[in-house]
């Protein structure tokens, strides 16, 4: 039953996230918002709503390990599994424009999270710093990106602002219901199997919330779009730390961080993110062999968590 709740939660989260993004794109276009601004705000934030909903539900239920573990695990999954898969498909050979800037920003966010882990909490003030850093980065990126570099695909939602508003609202309801089911199911699994909530966050919740990035990566690989996968991974990791945890800390009045994360998992995240960032900053190609090693390493990490 608990696994059924987890699966149902993931389905509602991903469906709701897609619906919100598509509805919001139509609303923005009807309001004549520039495509570049749509990409930097609505698409980026909308695709992270499932993770935000899960983190808020976890903190509201006094289960911060699920929130922090979910972000740590998701970032590891994005780098090792998602980017590794992209490399195996040959979709990471051409990282695209702005990759050096994004790699530096991701590592800045990662070291901020390292500081929070050793402080033992993400206070309201620390959350505000995270969110301000994210907004500042988006502002900098927006003003240093050419309009023609941004392409927004047409939405399947009818070009009617009333319908789009209704669709967006429905998507929001699906997201929050999905988060509720996911947290309930994950908590039940942890209790019945005698596994800590931190491990469930690092594995089940993290892997589930990384599925959209994995799907985008596979499609990019089949289409030969090299820059999509790398940009998605770097942007998602930065949003997870600065956006998801920052907003959750502000709304939830702070997040307590389990000291156990400082012993292993924060270092796994820093090591995996750092290696990829170093390769990108050095203009090294992330080839198929490297990708295979990354995916294999992720599988071993998951196995180690349950030993």
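^ Assign residues to that structure.
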């Amino acid at each position: 039953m608990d696994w059924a709740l987890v699966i149902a939660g993931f389905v509602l989260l991903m469906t709701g996230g897609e619906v919100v993004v598509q509805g919001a794109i139509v609303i923005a276009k009807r309001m004549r918002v520039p495509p570049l601004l749509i990409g930097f705000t609505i698409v980026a934030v909308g695709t992270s709503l499932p993770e935000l909903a899960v983190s808020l539900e976890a903190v509201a239920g006094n289960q911060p390990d699920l929130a922090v573990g979910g972000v740590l695990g998701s970032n590891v999954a994005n780098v090792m599994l998602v980017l590794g898969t992209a490399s195996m498909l040959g979709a990471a050979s051409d990282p695209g424009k702005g990759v050096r800037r994004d790699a530096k920003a991701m590592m800045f966010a990662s070291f901020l999270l390292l500081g929070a882990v050793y402080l033992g909490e993400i206070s309201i003030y620390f959350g505000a710093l995270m969110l301000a850093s994210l907004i500042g980065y988006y502002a900098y990126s927006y003003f240093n990106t050419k309009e023609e570099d941004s392409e927004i695909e047409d939405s399947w939602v009818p070009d009617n602002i009333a319908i789009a508003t209704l669709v967006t609202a429905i998507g929001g309801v699906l997201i929050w219901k999905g988060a509720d089911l996911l947290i309930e199911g994950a908590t039940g699994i942890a209790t019945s199997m005698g596994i800590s909530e931190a491990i469930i966050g690092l594995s089940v919740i993290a892997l589930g919330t990384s599925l959209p990035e994995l799907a985008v990566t596979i499609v990019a690989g089949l289409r030969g779009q090299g820059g999509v996968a790398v940009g998605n991974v770097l942007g998602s990791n930065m949003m997870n730390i600065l956006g998801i945890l920052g907003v959750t800390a502000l709304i939830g009045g702070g997040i307590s961080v389990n000291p156990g994360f400082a012993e292993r998992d924060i270092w796994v995240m820093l090591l995996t993110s750092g290696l990829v960032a170093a390769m990108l900053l050095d203009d090294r190609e992330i080839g198929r062999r490297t990708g295979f090693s990354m995916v294999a390493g992720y599988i071993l990490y998951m196995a180690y968590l349950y030993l």
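The mean pLDDT is 84.
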